[in-house]
Design brief:
This protein has helices at residues 12-23, 35-42, 53-63, 72-78, 100-109, 129-140, 161-166, 178-188, 201-232, 236-244, 265-278, 286-309, 337-347, 360-366, 376-380, 393-396, 400-404, 421-426; strands at 5-8, 28-31, 66-69, 81-84, 117-121, 147-151, 171-174, 196-199, 318-322, 351-355, 371-372, 385-388, 411-414, 430-433. The protein has 18 helices and 14 strands. The protein has a six-stranded parallel β-sheet with strand order 3-2-1-4-5-6, with helices on both faces. A six-stranded parallel β-sheet has the order 11-10-9-12-13-14. The chain has three domains: 4-199, Rossmann fold, CATH 3.40.50; 209-292, N-(1-d-carboxylethyl)-l-norvaline Dehydrogenase, domain 2; 297-433, Rossmann fold (3-Layer(aba) Sandwich). The protein is an alpha/beta fold and 437 residues long. The radius of gyration is 23 Å and the shape is globular. Bound molecules: uridine-5'-diphosphate-glucuronic acid (UGA). Uridine-5'-diphosphate-glucuronic acid binds at residues 124, 154-158, 212, 215, 219, 253-255, 257, 259-262, 264-265, 268, 326-327.
């Protein structure tokens, strides 16, 4: 009999993991403490925008292999392997990660575990958390050593969540026993040939934070080059292209622009610095402060460029903003560079109107003080300056001539180096971009 799986926490990670594992043939029970979310999921409705996930969810529900509950009793009775996929957001006013939801999950589940099972952490946590949770699990669970902890970090990207779950680059198993390793190898066997790295808890936790720190560093590296290019009248796009042919460097995560946002990279590098400090290794990660600072400076530079194009002040100026999500193909606005720029311009007196193909409702809820348009054309109507802040394909495909017909002045700042500069210039636009002459 294949193992029965449970998934605790139904955010991007949890829903995708639950639905994908059901698609692979496992019986899966998902849990969340939010009854509304559970009702929607059981009705086949996604609470988030994630391309390709809804059909997988619906297939799982229709097959009878996937369902969702709010009951820890049901989860404990059902599962052989329990995946913990809850969020670990940044603490308010601090760099450190808030691990309350993980502790709540273990405290909800452990006292109900009375038989052999594996509890598998997938959330991104400060190194040392798994060891602490293993003690807690042993203390609280009636099954004693039969209920064991493993750490199995997740590397999926929003927008590609299903693909990344079914075709991971690697699987990392932080385990203490051969039994735990064997159980997890069995769970992931249907994925076929995937490199598996078996580690201790601490290394498994660190692989995840190190991976995100590396990606953030790579993005900030090219954005630092963009700053130098701006000062030297050079072109960061060509620089990046030329670097990318060196396969020791590679071209991915080397797109200069407004920098990184979202629910992971920014808070993960901050939590990593905070944890290193607690461990007495803060010097090792001081460079991440710079990575963060470079990233935040891009937003400020974008506002400065927009103000420059507006003639030195935003007062009496209408600004059309294209994009609110932290990246394309997502409705996620957590720490979105696009929204941060829009809000800053609003504070400085600009009349900002935003359009985003999917994230509009989330943006409107978070920032009711800004204006929203139902299309790109509507958002830029009468604008003195247009800003492209999230590189949705829909924006890349915009016709500069058509857009030029509705704006007050043909001025655009391309915050993602996504547009064909020549195309826009030849349609009479004053085109500016970050890191380019
Ligand atoms: C990131 C990691 O890529 C995943 O591997 C990881 O699992 C995930 O965090 C997580 O910890 O949960 P995600 O937040 O979905 O995934 O977003 P990315 O696609 O990595 O993009 C992050 C940000 O970097 C976006 O704002 C994007 O616009 C920006 N970016 C990306 C750049 O500015 N330049 C680039 O070249 C690439």
């Amino acid at each position: 009999m294949p193992y029965r799986l449970t998934v605790i926490g139904t955010g991007y990670l949890g829903i995708t993991h639950a639905a994908s594992m059901a698609d692979l043939g496992f019986e899966v029970l998902g849990l969340d403490v939010d009854p509304d979310k559970i009702a929607r999921l059981n009705a086949g409705e996604l609470p988030i925008h994630e391309p390709g996930l809804e059909p997988v969810l619906r297939r799982g529900l229709a097959s009878g292999r996937l369902r969702f509950t709010t009951s820890y009793e049901e989860v404990a009775a059902f599962g052989d392997v329990h995946f913990v996929c809850v969020g670990t957001p940044q603490k308010r006013g601090e760099y450190a990660a808030d691990v309350t939801y993980i502790d709540n999950a273990i405290e909800g589940l452990a006292p109900l575990l009375d038989r052999e099972c594996l509890v598998v952490g997938k959330s991104t946590v400060p190194v040392g958390t798994a060891e602490r949770l293993a003690d807690k699990l042993a203390r609280l669970s009636p099954a004693g050593a039969e209920a064991e902890l493993a750490w199995n970090p997740e590397f999926l990207r929003e927008g590609f969540a299903v693909h990344d779950t079914l075709h991971p680059d690697r699987i990392v198993l932080g385990v203490r026993t051969e039994r735990a390793e064997k159980m997890l190898r069995e769970v992931y066997e249907p994925l076929g040939e995937v490199p598996i790295v078996v580690t201790d808890y601490a290394t498994a936790e660190l692989v995840k934070t190190a991976a995100n720190a590396f990606l953030a560093t790579k993005i900030s590296f090219i954005n630092a080059m963009a700053e130098v290019c701006e000062a030297a009248h050079a072109d960061v796009e060509l620089l990046s292209k030329a670097l990318s042919y060196d396969d020791r460097i590679g071209g991915r995560y080397l797109n200069a622009g407004l920098g990184f946002g979202g629910g992971c990279l920014p808070k993960d590098i901050r939590a990593f610095m905070a944890r290193a400090g607690e461990l007495g290794a803060d010097q090792a990660l001081t460079f991440l402060r710079e990575v963060d600072a470079i990233n935040m400076r891009r937003r400020a530079r974008m506002v400065d460029l927009a103000r420059e194009l507006a003639g030195g002040s935003f007062h009496g100026c209408t600004v059309g903003v294209l994009g609110a999500a932290f990246k394309p193909n997502s409705d996620d606005i957590r720490d979105s560079p696009a929204l941060a720029v829009a809000v800053a311009i609003g504070h400085q007196g600009g009349k900002v109107t935003i359009y985003d193909p999917i994230a509009l409702d989330n943006a409107r809820k978070a920032h009711p003080e800004l204006n929203y348009g139902e299309s790109a054309v509507e958002a830029v109507r009468g604008a003195h300056v247009v800003l492209l802040l999230t590189e949705w394909q829909e924006f890349v495909d915009l016709d500069p001539e058509q857009l030029g017909g509705v704006v007050a002045a043909r001025r655009i700042v391309d915050g993602r180096n996504a547009l064909d500069a020549e195309n826009w210039r030849s349609a009479g636009w004053h085109y500016r971009a970050l890191g380019r002459p």
